[in-house]
Specification:
alpha/beta, TIM Barrel, 2 domains, 9 helices
Length: 312
């Protein structure tokens, strides 16, 4: 007997035999593809990873450089700051040793104020005017001319009336602010410097406001941000209604001798004609003594007869 395969089995075998030749070439192609391209992609991946590692190292290097740059910048900033401090200290030393005369004129403005401004302009000298209240067109124009000439204006109270302004702290404040407001309306400035009428240690104020009034006022104005100035050279032009010209000149030059900083008291009220006459000789004499000239500011050298401490 012959073994006979069922037709179904034969058909399946036949189909199997027909698929085998097609499978082998495809497998070979796949193997060849993998052998050719997988190493290529592996090399590319390795190169990519290596690039990433190099970039990370570069980034770390940049971070180190940035740290070093920051450190160097900080060192440079500290060095520059130290240099600036040294320069400032040298300037302070230079300023301390420099001879400076501060010409100050009280009680104006008057017609003498304009004459004084002309002399100062001719001599290229700056000064300070402690003015009183003058609400006229003439007075306002004089305030403007002082500022236009590059000089300083200080508050010397509106009325300059001892009885009025030294009656109490409140009375002084009212009189003081009356002038400050007038100056602000006229020249757009509220002066930060002042001179008390009669000086900070005047005795007339005691008659009206008591022995401690000036201490109270000095302390109050300082706390409010003002700087008050007395003087260390007296021209003596107020010792008489009209003082001798030579007396004024010699008082200033002798009083300024051997001083590094001279705050010189003079007056430009209407009767002080000899002060105007003495001024050119005063300027010339001070220049011979080695003085330069400047106007006062809040930060200038000051001479104060009393200390700013509260009264009890």
């Amino acid at each position: 007997m012959h073994d006979k395969k069922s037709p179904y089995i034969y058909i399946r075998d036949s189909k199997k035999k027909r698929r085998d030749p097609a499978i082998k070439p495809a497998a070979i192609i796949l193997i060849v593809f993998l052998l050719l391209f997988i190493p290529h992609y592996i090399l590319q991946a390795a190169a990519y990873i290596d690039t990433l590692q190099q970039l990370e190292k570069m980034k770390e290097g940049n971070n180190e450089l940035n740290k070093e740059n920051t450190s160097l910048k900080n060192e440079l900033d500290r060095a520059q700051k130290g240099l600036e401090n040294l320069k400032q200290e040298m300037e302070k030393t230079k300023d301390v040793n420099k001879k400076v005369a501060y010409l100050t004129f009280d009680d104006g403005p008057s017609t003498n104020t304009g004459k004084i401004l002309q002399i100062l302009n001719n001599e290229h000298v700056k000064a300070t005017f402690f003015v009183v209240g003058n609400n006229t067109d003439f007075g306002k124009e004089a305030y403007r001319q002082i500022i236009a000439g590059g000089h300083a204006i200080g508050n010397h109270t509106y009325s300059h009336n001892y009885r009025t302004l030294y009656g109490s702290v409140e009375a002084f404040q009212e009189d003081f602010m009356q002038l400050e407001n007038l100056l602000y309306e006229t020249i757009g400035q509220r002066p930060s410097i002042l001179r008390f009428p009669g000086g900070s240690n005047n005795h007339v104020s005691r008659k009206y406001g008591g022995r401690q009034l000036m201490n109270r006022l000095a302390d109050l104005k300082t706390k409010e941000g003002y700087q008050f100035f007395d003087w260390n050279v007296d021209s003596r032009d107020a010792s008489k209604i009209v003082q001798n010209t030579d007396t004024i000149v010699q008082s200033v030059l002798n009083g300024s001798r051997n001083k590094k900083k001279a705050i010189i008291l003079m007056h430009d009220s209407q009767v002080k004609t000899t002060t105007v006459q003495a001024l050119p000789r005063i300027i010339a004499g001070l220049k011979k003594q080695g003085f330069s000239f400047d106007s006062l500011t809040k930060d200038s050298f000051t001479n104060q007869f009393i200390k700013q401490k509260p009264a009890h």
